[in-house]
TrEMBL record:
Domain of life where this protein originates: Eukaryota
Region called Disordered, residue ranges: 51-73
Basic and acidic residues composition-biased segments: 53-62
Keywords of this entry: Metal-binding, Prenyltransferase, Repeat, Transferase, Zinc
Biased composition range(s): Polar residues: 63-73
Source species of the chain: Cronartium quercuum f. sp. fusiforme G11
Family designation: Belongs to the protein prenyltransferase subunit beta family.
InterPro entries documented for this protein: PGGT1B-like (IPR045089), Prenyltrans (IPR001330), Terpenoid_cyclase/PrenylTrfase (IPR008930)
Protein name per its UniProtKB record: Prenyltransferase alpha-alpha toroid domain-containing protein
Pfam families linked to this entry: Prenyltrans (PF00432)
Length: 511
């Protein structure tokens, strides 16, 4: 729990709609924190709201007045049963209000089924096959996946469809794995992705769609998993990603090439944002696999680390993360910001200016963000604790309802905060040796690649993607012991053994 006084965000004595909603949010969070916080940290009149402000933003039914410090944090529980009951109906018939998400069916399946996986829940044989068949019905005949049967192919549902299949097949028998992946047209998908590539190296989401760094992440994840991350697919992306970094340190939505005098420069579009920073950093990590094939432009890693650390909210906001400067705290950034710390730490450790041969020191590795504070935000604010209602599912903040999106990314952030992930160069070397013994001939060879170069490139992608270790001695589970979740891959946001199962299928010859 917080060790510093719970002081409100300064408003400089200027009242605005923004300051009102910030104060209202802090009050709602404080109400939920009170039973868990020591009395000396509570200041009299910590937040002063007018009655109009309270009526505008607070739901009195959410308030559970209790004595400060009356409950130890060790008794806080992640209500797995409630979350399971919330998630299961989404695999069958959705309520009419979900009609507007008809083009997001692959995302709903990914959010629900990957939440199952993180909670260590599984499907029976019939439901697994039904889920696989449903995902494959989204496949477009010209490559990629759409948001539903017959929809246009789009990079976002392609990512969520492939990720869902990886999750579904992680514990399946070998025959089902082979049969399912044989039904995915990898060649058409690769050709389709190449049609989305723009002259500056970036990707559009779909034909005639928008450019942003989310498209880059979706394309690189799928290409890395399915073994078609060629130099042709990646060319120009290092410059595009680096150009997304703003003066704040985080990354914006995209970058644009402009000519100033006689030189070309890339300028970022928009302010730094947690989601774009995550997509950009993870894309940058993946594309560093191709350093032997194309130049990789570095980012300002310390500036990015600083920005990410500053996105963790004040004690009075519960220790969660916000996605942009001066915005409200939001549970989904538990993953988009909190989940990316292992990757930024790895990038710093392997940068040319670093001389680290071992994992980062405890002071750096454990101190870049408050893992305990984030878990407390999730347990006490995103979920809530009895005697208040715990309906199942996880939410953005007290004023927001639960939904599948936030349930998934809050659980992802909770898992990441509980487990310490370390990128191991020695593990990467071991994986490279295993690859040399069993590598399958590459299916996709770049236009300017030889067979040997394509094999070396596939080796680098495979070994780099899987070289993450979970340091069990650094596990930190706040609250009851039963709150512990399954560790997830910090780049792909799925169970690491499931990622390896998929990549073994596409990169290695059968045993």
């Amino acid at each position: 729990m917080p060790v510093h006084p719970l002081l409100p965000t300064p408003t400089d004595d200027y009242r605005s709609d923004t300051s009102v909603i910030q104060s209202t949010t802090e009050q709602a969070i404080l109400d939920l924190l009170l039973p868990w916080v020591q009395p000396h940290l509570i200041r009299p009149n910590t937040i002063q709201l007018t009655q109009a402000d309270t009526d505008k933003g607070n739901d009195e039914n959410q308030r559970v007045p209790q004595q400060p410090g009356s409950r130890p944090i060790s008794t806080a529980v992640l209500d797995r049963t409630a979350h399971m009951k919330y998630l299961i109906p989404g695999l069958n018939h959705l309520a009419p209000r979900f009609t507007g998400l008809d083009a997001s069916r692959p995302w709903l399946m990914y959010w629900i089924l990957n939440s199952f996986s993180i909670l260590n829940l599984g499907l029976n044989t019939a439901d697994r096959q039904r889920a696989i068949d449903t995902v494959l019905s989204f496949q477009h005949p010209q490559g990629g996946f759409g948001g539903g049967p017959g929809h246009l192919a789009h990079l976002a549902p392609t990512f969520s469809s492939i990720s869902t299949l990886v999750s579904l097949l992680g514990a399946a028998d070998d025959e089902l794995v082979r049969d399912t992946w044989a039904r995915v047209d990898i060649g058409q998908m690769y050709n389709w992705m190449l049609t989305l590539k723009q002259p500056d190296g970036s990707f559009i989401m779909q034909q005639n769609g928008e450019v942003d760094v989310r498209a880059t992440y979706c394309a690189l994840c799928v290409a890395s998993l399915l073994n078609f991350l060629t130099p042709d697919l990646a060319r120009g992306l290092p410059e595009f990603i680096a150009g997304c970094q703003t003066y704040e340190g985080g990354l914006g939505s995209a970058s644009q090439l402009v000519n100033i005098s006689t030189r070309s420069h890339r300028i970022p579009l928009g302010e730094a944002h947690g989601g774009y920073t995550s997509c950009g950093l993870l894309s940058h990590f993946l594309i560093k696999s191709l350093e032997g094939s194309l130049p990789v432009v570095p980012l300002d890693y310390p500036a990015c680390l600083r920005w990410l650390s500053l996105m963790q909210a004040l004690p009075i906001e519960g220790g969660g993360f916000r996605g942009r400067t001066n915005k409200l705290v939001d549970g989904c950034y538990s993953w988009w910001c909190g989940g990316v710390f292992p990757v930024i730490n790895a990038l710093i450790a392997e940068s040319p200016s670093s001389t680290l041969d071992e994992p980062l020191s405890d002071e750096i590795r454990l101190g870049t963000y408050d893992r305990q504070g984030l878990q407390e935000y999730i347990l006490l604010i995103s979920q809530g604790q009895p005697p208040g209602p715990v309906p199942g599912g996880l939410r953005d903040k007290p004023s927001a309802p639960v939904d599948h999106y936030h349930t998934h990314y809050v659980l992802s952030g909770l898992s990441s905060a509980q487990h310490q992930h370390y990128f191991s160069t020695s593990e990467m070397d071991s994986l490279g040796t295993a690859f040399d013994l069993r590598s399958a001939p590459p299916t996709f060879i770049g236009i300017e690649e030889t067979l040997g170069q394509a094999t070396a490139r596939a080796r680098a992608v495979y070994s780099r993607a899987l070289a993450w270790l979970t340091l069990e001695h650094d596990q930190l589970v706040i609250g009851a012991a039963q709150n512990g979740l399954i560790p997830i891959h910090p780049v792909f946001n799925m169970r690491t053994p499931y990622v390896k199962r998929a990549m073994d299928h596409f990169y290695l010859a059968p045993p």
